[in-house]
Write a structure and sequence with these properties.
The complex is a heterodimer.
Chain A (H helix, E strand, L loop, with lengths): L17 H32 L11 E6 L3 E6 L11 E4 L17 H7 L4 E6 L11 H20 L4 E6 L1 H12 L4 E7 L11 H6 L4 H8 L4 H8 L4 H14 L4 H14 L7 H13 L9 E2 L2 E2 L9 E6 L7 H10 L5 E6 L10 H16 L4
Parallel strand pairs in A: 3-4, 3-5, 5-6, 6-9, 9-10
Antiparallel strand pairs in A: 1-2, 2-4, 7-8
Helix pairs in contact in A: 3-4, 6-10
Chain B lengths: L1 H15 L8 H19 L7 H55 L9 H21 L1 H31 L5 H37 L1
Helix pairs in contact in B: 2-3, 3-4, 3-5
Classes of the chains: A alpha/beta, B mainly alpha.
Chain lengths: ~375, ~210
Amino acid sequence: MTLETLLPDNTQSPPHQKRIEDGYTAAYKFVLELEEISRKLEKAKSILHAAGNIEVGNTPHEILAETRMYRLLHYRPLVSKTAKTPLLVVYALINKSYILDLQPDRSWIRSLLSQGFDVYLIDWKAPTQADKYTSFDDYVNYYIDDCVELVRRRNSTDKVSLHGYCMGATMSAIYSSLHEEKVRNLATIAPVIDTEKDTTVLANFSRHMNFDKTFESIGNLPPQHLYASFSALKPFKQGVNKYYNLVENIDNENFVENFLRIEKWLYDTPPIAGETFRQWLKDIYQRNLLFINELKIGGVTVDLSKIKIPLLNIIAEEDHLVSPQCSASLNDAVSSTDKRIMRFHTGHVGLIASIYSQNNVLPKVGQWLKSRSQ
Amino acid sequence: MVSEQTNNNNNDNKKEAPTGNTIDPVQFGEEINKMLGIWSELSKLPTVGPNHAYSEEFRSDVQDFVNLGRVLFQLQINLNDYWLMISRASLRAQMTISNKSSEKYNSNDGSARSFEIYRKIMIDALEESFTGLFNSSEFAIVYGKLLNNQMDALKLVQTLAEKNLKVLNLPTRSEMDMLSRDVHDLKKNVHDLRNKLELLTKNDTRNIIA
């Protein structure tokens, strides 16, 4: 039976059968809608099955150094270099760094290259259980420091600009306070600083957990624990709703590709080294030691007030992973005279990987950095 | 008001019939703990003679199993609290959905019956209810306890497994941990030494040139 057979035969219908005809038309429309939903669901299913093949991080680069814990990437210039000081991007330890180079029209890295910066990126690798004792001391005083040294040597310069995102921004701030002589500018994106002011769900959860016990029992923090915490962040508006939107927009190629790239990144989560994770949540989140200048890294106390270099702090007003007020405190903690906060009406990921950030955030960030990179 | 009255009535009923068929979870918990305590004490009783050495391993295993039982019991209690909170949040959301969707339905708005409006109401209500729950310290406390129980249980299972590995003369987790720590420290030392050597070589070269 075809769908058309459900339609009333208008040529033979007497006028008093109008209501019956309306009923037939409504039923016909309903069946058509069902058919359309089924088609979209079927298409979504096949697209999602092949989702892992989507390409990310395509901006041309070379691997300058590779160890078991990180890769240092150097991006090929897209235009002639106009900023003298090289820019070292420090990514977070949560998920993968390709969010900064998701796709050509939403690439943070590509935008910086097209503004004439010489861009390097630290791409962290997944730690194994043998690396459970890797701490912030290793990340800051060894891995970041090694990368800074390599960039300085390669560019024959004494200083680099540090540009960190989220946890990477916190590590950049810590590095700057301990090795300021090697840093010209510090540009942070959504750094975790004053956790007492953090009103996010993650901060709430972390206040009531025993991280010593977690470290002793499971060593590295497995991705499953991170998924459980992240799924509590806007569980319906960003969790359930996004799949509905995918089905609705399944014929829009751009929407689907962008969705798949973000989705790939969201669930591409390496474990976090046990000792680093313990320090991160116990010392920084529970005790707020970084903000009160009592955090110890490699036996040395981190004093944020020692930072005197130019500081740009980029904050998302709708950030539900790191509260804006938690990040903004960095500007109160440092002693820099040249410091600025830029606030944008977007979220934690939207700040770095959206059309909005390309049009509104990056031109301003580039301008600020360029004027201090000559 | 209605719910308060119901609660009061329940309390009155409890007072009137304390020996009913319902099980008081607190009392039940105390009883279980008491029982586990007895087994724990029994396992600690001193033994005499040559059997002492042989029974030592067994006694520590019993103690671990008793502890595991305690932790699993606590885990169950916290899991119940966890699901109770989730169910309440879900119920709150369903009440909001039902109130708001019926309001829209009665508002003579032509489009109110559409699925899209219902979907939005549903998502908003669920989001509000669950975000409120996840932001509350009560939930965070229960969630924290639940995770702690899981870690405790895991630790006890690991302790039991370690004892068995020792029997097989295999390296245990603690021993592997010690090695990991040593390797980690060694790597740092080598890194520092290499940097110092590089610096010395640079200085030497400068001195030779000078």
